[in-house]
Design brief:
Elements: E1 12-16, H1 20-33, E2 40-43, H2 46-52, E3 58-64, H3 70-73, E4 80-84, E5 94-97, H4 102-116, E6 130-134, H5 143-155, E7 160-164, H6 171-175, H7 183-192, H8 197-204, E8 206-208, E9 211-214, H9 220-225, H10 228-241, E10 246-250, H11 258-263, E11 267-272, H12 276-291, H13 295-300, E12 301-305, H14 323-334
Parallel strand pairs: 1-2, 1-3, 3-4, 4-5, 6-10, 6-11, 7-9, 7-10, 11-12
Antiparallel strand pairs: 8-9
Length: 338
């Protein structure tokens, strides 16, 4: 559990608390639920902490108030989160009550780590990220269900990220959780402080099964204000600072320059239906592509006519089971993606 810091760069989160059961619980939660790209160590006393750790080995020190002595203060740790035990709060260092949910403490640790994170040029080690565009002019065609199913199937094979571009995604209600920010925050950081994008992604990324997703933009008004160039720049940054092999774009007409975004995709899937209205919309959409010199989109689009399913999973975590999953898996296999 405790190791010396020889030859270690400042990537560690160190917890220091003499209340062993508390410290172990926090450490295990951070390791399994924290989504932190840092080693996590526990020290049950300040003496061992000061003997083995320095500001050069520790990026963030999470320490109980009872262990935060003058000696620790003078050691020079750059980032400290004090777990307050007395209820008397100080201006510095950063402090919060020790006696609240471990989820809240974890959120604060993630936020502090995100503010420290910087982009390393050329950090990517895996394959280039494949962009998968999913778009249909036909409404209520199971586009988002199809996209989430595809994303989860791909995520079981390789790291995958899902981005939703609907005016109203409803994800917070469907998943029963409150998100930490949205992709609009990433757009801001990518424009103004690109070195912070990697850390912010770690802080706000959510999961559906094995599939990562970024919380969507909060409103269609904000969506319409984002230029196509900003989306493409963000996608390039995501490719640079992550190891995702697939990025699934669940697109809509709300996206400025949606055809330009689709043009950059490696794969495009369009869901069709048999009825007359759907056929008329597809005819008009394909005519638009040809008349506006986007025939390349037309040529690389896979048209998917889904059957009528007897039953669809009511839980987003169950989308990889049943008739829909079998259909999507067959499509991916035909495209050589599974």
């Amino acid at each position: 559990m405790n190791n010396n810091g020889e030859g270690i760069t400042a990537r560690r989160i160190c917890i220091c608390d003499s209340e062993v059961s508390y410290g172990e619980h926090l450490m295990e939660y951070l390791r399994h639920e924290g989504r932190l790209s840092r080693e996590i160590y526990l020290y049950t006393g300040r003496e061992m902490l000061l003997e083995r750790e320095t500001p050069e080995t520790t990026r963030l020190l999470v320490i109980a108030q009872s262990q935060y002595t003058e000696e620790v203060e003078k050691a020079g740790f750059k980032e400290i989160l004090l777990l307050n035990e007395s209820g008397v709060y100080m201006e510095t260092p950063e402090n919060m009550s020790k006696y609240q949910s471990v989820e809240n403490i974890c959120d604060r640790i993630r936020e502090m780590c995100a503010m420290q994170e910087e982009v390393s040029e050329g950090v990517r080690h895996g394959k280039p990220m494949k962009l998968i565009g999913i778009y249909s002019p036909v409404t209520r065609c199971l586009q988002t269900t199809f996209a989430l199913c595809m994303g989860q199937l791909l995520a079981a094979k390789a790291p995958a990220l899902y981005l939703n571009f609907e005016a109203y995604s409803g994800f917070e209600t469907m998943l029963g959780r409150q998100f930490r920010g949205s992709v609009s925050d990433l757009l801001y950081f990518n424009d103004c402080a690109r070195e912070k994008v990697a850390g912010q992604m770690q802080y706000m990324t959510e999961k559906i099964g094995e599939l990562d997703f970024l919380p969507p933009v909060e409103s269609f008004l904000l969506m319409r204000s984002v230029r196509a160039e900003q989306w493409m720049e963000l996608l390039r940054t995501i490719e640079k600072v992550t190891e995702y092999e697939y990025c699934i774009l669940d697109l809509s007409e709300q996206v400025d320059g949606v055809l330009e975004v689709m043009r950059q995709c490696d794969f495009i899937f369009t869901i069709t239906r048999e009825d007359g209205f759907a056929g008329a919309k597809m005819t008009q959409y394909e005519a638009l592509l040809k008349s506006t010199q986007y025939e390349d989109i037309f040529m690389k689009t896979r048209r998917c006519q889904l059957p009528i399913f007897r039953e669809l999973p009511g839980n987003l975590l169950m989308l990889t089971h049943g008739e829909l999953a079998a259909c999507v898996k067959n499509i991916l296999e035909e495209e050589g993606m599974l």
